[in-house]
Design brief:
Distance between the termini: 37 Å
Number of helices: 6
Structural class: alpha+beta
Helix content: 25-40%
Radius of gyration: 20 Å
Bound molecules: ligand Q0Z
Order of helices and strands: EEEEEHEEEEHEEEHHEEEHH
Number of strands: 15
Shape: globular
Oligomer: single chain
Strand content: 15-25%
Largest sheet: 6 strands, antiparallel
């Protein structure tokens, strides 16, 4: 892929820019006295940028950052009986109102914790080659989009930006973080996805898979003196999970993507004039595709939360 040049990050008074992701930014609040970056907090800012086919598009989706941030905050509440989360406050600078959260800086677990409830994508490719996913044997005869007998943990490495994460076996996770922590993040990942699907199914949405990130809070130990595991980053958003409309679910073909279907359909249609295999950056989206995509994000938020997106 051709590396597209990222837009310079927003200047936020009182904050130091720490890191740019594909569609999000990390800042550290500055200490009022010293002006130095705080080491115990981060400001997570979601932009309106969207990626498709491994490219960050030139077109933004208005309110996408707000919708995903508010959805993630809502999920943290739905998951609060399973584990604590990193959120300190959603009282953030006006420039990023609604699309940023102030969080506790944690010691991040160096594994991408992926849970799968349905088979697709790289999991499907692995299954077709080996009959298993990340070393987990699965029944024969599964198709693209099949529901799995139970949610599975299919971790990957955390690759640097622009590189692809690599699948890990569970034994590799144990070697990386120890058997105790490996078992705990595996259990938490599948519990989060199971809870997510219990809630989403009532609203006509399937959560095929999800990526969650955990951090350790060494200050808060559990009864056995182990550091508390804290849910970090964003959770169960369309950027971290595959959302499928349940009404259109039909194993045996690629499923409609809840959020990006209009984007993908237009980019792969003759109308876009774009050749996915060319390595070229995709063209800007027509305004009706932008509007329809914004409406899908808002619809997912409103369906799931039962709230109106202001
Ligand atoms: C999250 C990311 C980006 C948003 C680091 N609570 C935490 N403590 C320490 N580190 C992180 C968190 Cl959430 C952390 N990321 C991913 C990148 C914007 C989130 F650019 N990286």
């Amino acid at each position: 892929m051709t590396p597209e040049i990222a837009a310079p990050p927003l200047e936020l008074p009182g904050h130091a820019h720490v890191y740019s992701g594909k569609v999000r930014e990390l800042y550290a609040p500055l200490e009022p006295g010293t002006g130095r970056p705080r080491e115990d907090q981060l400001l997570l800012v979601a932009s309106d940028r969207i990626s498709a086919f491994d490219h960050v598009l030139d077109s933004e989706i208005p309110d996408k950052g707000k919708v995903l941030t508010q959805l993630s905050l809502w999920w943290f509440e739905q998951l609060a009986d399973i584990l604590p989360n990193h959120v300190i406050s959603s009282d953030v600078p006006d420039a990023v109102a609604g699309r940023a959260v102030l969080v506790r800086r944690l010691d991040m677990v160096p594994v991408e914790c992926i849970g799968r409830a349905y088979l697709t994508g790289s999991g499907l490719a692995d299954y077709r080659e080996s009959g298993s996913v990340c070393g987990i044997p699965l029944p024969a005869g599964l198709q693209d989009g099949s529901e799995l007998p139970e949610p599975i943990f299919t971790p990957t490495t955390k690759a640097p930006l622009g590189e692809h994460d690599q699948p890990m076996t569970y034994a590799q996770v144990e070697a990386e973080v120890g058997a105790d922590l490996a078992a705990r993040v595996r259990e938490l990942t599948t519990r989060i996805l199971r809870r997510g699907n219990e809630v989403a199914a009532r609203r006509g949405i399937l959560l095929a898979d999800t990526k969650v990130e955990f951090g350790l809070d060494h200050a808060t130990g559990d009864a056995d003196g182990r550091p508390a595991i804290v849910l970090a980053d964003e959770v169960l958003t369309p950027d971290s999970s595959r959302f499928w409309p349940a009404a259109q679910w039909e194993p045996g073909r690629a499923q409609a993507s809840y959020d990006k279907q209009f984007v993908r359909d237009w980019l792969t249609s003759p109308a876009s004039g774009w050749d996915r295999s060319s390595g070229e950056a995709p063209p800007p989206l027509p305004e009706d595709v932008v509007a329809a995509t914004r409406a899908r994000y808002v619809e997912a938020y409103e369906l799931l939360t039962g709230r109106t997106f202001a």
